Amino acid sequence: MRILFFSDIDLDLSDDNGDLNELGASFPPLESPPVHFATENNTIVTSQTGSTALVPCVINNIGDGMVSWIRRKDYHLLTVGLTTYSSDDRFQAIHLQHSEDWTLQIKFVQQRDAGLYECQVSSHPPTSIFIQLNVVEARAEIQGPSEKYLKPGSGLRLQCNVLQSTEAPSYIFWYHNNRMINYDVDRGINVTTDLTEKTSTLTITNAATRHSGNYSCVPSNAQPASTYVHILNGENPAAMQHGGRGLSWLQCSPSSWLLIFSVLIIWC
Q1: Between 20 and 30 A from 87 (CA), which of 27, 65, 187, 267?
Q2: CA distance linking residue 35 with residue 37, whole number of Å
């Protein structure tokens, strides 16, 4: 029996270029998987004015590709990689090392920032998705009419809701005329606020004439709302309409006006 050693065998394990790979054999080159956007095309993002808008773009298999953000309404190049090319420093690409997330951040978002944004990867050929940014104006609303009429001793309840807000306010303050009254328990005023639900309720169990006046609901991140409360002390509510300016005498009938003019003519 003859034992063969590798030194006795002449094998040609070189590739087409005559180079040996680590295993001494040649393999076909591996193709890189195609770029894939995990963020859905035509995603809609809603932010409120004054907040920080985050426009998402998650990309799989980016390889050596470079990510750019483009504002489509004027084809303005905002960022390339982590470099901001816009003179408006509110725009910034947010990306953590080894992550697949290339979010566009817009600080202190304004109504003019609304529109279509393109997230583009410099693959061959370049590939993109489009994200729609909507910007809303958050506002407070006090339920009920803009003017309220109560008798002394009755209860007052004002509920304020923050509408079109994409994030919870950090506070909701109530003002009576120019005084903040959230903590005026000793004056018969109680305020309960649920910031998560974006709502606040003001209650007065025993209203007095000193509680008359303008009440404003002022959230930290929304336009305020106001209502005027009249605590009647024998007055006629109809005579206090239109701000209670004593203009009810203008609501005379045509015959009354004719009598007034006749008297004036005779007197003259």
Answers
A1: 65
A2: 7
